[in-house]
Amino acid sequence: MSGSSVKGSVAEVFLAFLKLGLTSFGGPVAHLGYFRSEFVERRRWLSENNYADLVALCQFLPGPASSQVGIAIGLSRAGYVGALAAWTAFTLPSAVALVVFAYGLNAAGSNFGGGWLHGLKVAAVAVVALAILGMARTLTPNRLRASIAVAAMTVAVLLPSAWGQIGGIVLGGIVGLAAIKAAPAVDRTVLPLPVGRRAGIVSLAVFGGLLLGLPLIASMTDSALLRLFDTFYRVSSFVFGGGHVVLPLLKAEMVPTWVNYDTFLAGYGATQAVPGPLFTFAAYLGTVIGGWSVAVVCLVGIFLPSFLLVVGFLPFWDGLRKQPAAQAALAGVNSAVVGLLLAAFYDPVWTAGITNSFDYVLGLAAFVLLFVWKAPPWLVVALCGVAGQLFIS
C-alpha cells in the first residue's frame, strides 16, 4: 500500500475497534451496522459508496465478512499494521472471554452443571433457526435458489464430513453459474484501498499455497498443532455466508476427533453471548483441546485466510464485481450456504439441544424472544442457561 493512502494512526484504529469489540453484540449483520455508524456517519473515514464497496467485496469472499470489513477499514486508515490493529482490537475481547469460559468448563468438569450446559445447547437451536430464517429470505428468493439450498443440504446430510460441506458449496456455484441470471452491476466509485496488483498476486499465491500445502505437510508430520492450524485455515477458506456457517464445517472437522458434541455445542452457545466475531469460537475450541497457546494457533488459523483474501482481491475487485458470471456463481454459493445451515440445524444442533418437551418449549420461547421481541442474543443465551440449570436435572 502506498504511504499516501494512510490517513490515520495505528493507535486510533486500535481504540476505535476495541470499543466495537467490547460492544458489538448481535452477529455479522449487526456488526456491519455498527461499522457504518462508527466509520461512515461518526468518524467519516469512508464515504457511503466506499463502505458499500467494501461490504460487497467481503460478502463475495469466504470467511467472516464483518471481520474482513474491519481489516479493510484498518488497512485503509493506517496501512497493513492498521489492518492488524483493527483485527486484534475487534477480536480480542470475545476471544479472551471464550478462553476464560473454556478454562472454567475444563476445571469444573462433570461438576459444572449439566443443566446449564444443556440450556446453552437449546439457545443454539434458537440462534441458528433465526440465522436460517434471515438468510433464506435474502439468499433463496425463488424456486431455483431454494432448490439449490435443498440439494446442498442433501449432499451435506449424505456425506457428513468436511467434503460434503465443500461439495455442497461447489454444487451451488456450478448451478448458479449455469442457471442464475445475475443483475447488471451498478457502478460505484473506486475502492479507497490502493493495494498494488503485485501485493495482491503475492497474497493470493500465499493463500493458495497454504490451502494446498498445509494438508500435505500435516499428513507427513505428527504435529497436532499443525493439523489443527490446517483444519481451521481450511474451514475458514470455505465459509460463505457469515459466521453461523462455520458451525457445520467445524462440526464435521472437530466432532468427535477433537471434542465431543456436548462440549462443542456448549461453546457455540456461549459464543452467542459475547460481542465481536463468531469466529472466535475457534479460541474456545483451542482452549478446550490444549489451553490458551492452542487457542492462539486456532485463532490465527481461522482468521489468516481473511487477511490474505482481502489484500489479494482488493486490486482486482472493481473489475471482478462487474462480471455477470462471478455474480451468478456467488448467488448459487450463497443459496447452498442456506442448505448447509439446514443440515447442521438438524444434526447436531436440534438432535443435541431438543431432547424432550421442556427443551422444545424453552427453544421456542428463546426463538420468540429473538425474532418477535428482538432481544439481544447474549440475554437469550443467559436466560436459557439459567432455565436449564433450574429445571433440567
From TrEMBL:
Keywords: Cell membrane, Membrane, Transmembrane, Transmembrane helix
Keyword Cytoplasm among record annotations: no
Alphabetical list of InterPro entries matching this protein: Chr_Tranpt_l_chain (IPR014047), Chromate_transpt (IPR003370)
Transmembrane segments: 13-35, 80-104, 116-136, 148-180, 200-219, 231-250, 289-316, 328-346, 366-392
Compartmental location: Cell membrane
This protein's record includes keyword ATP-binding: no
Membrane topology: Multi-pass membrane protein
Pfam families in the record: Chromate_transp (PF02417)
Superkingdom of source: Bacteria
Membership in a protein family: Belongs to the chromate ion transporter (CHR) (TC 2.A.51) family.
PANTHER family attached to this UniProt entry: CHROMATE ION TRANSPORTER (EUROFUNG) (PTHR33567:SF3)
Name listed for the protein in its UniProt record: Chromate efflux transporter
UniProt organism field: Tardiphaga alba
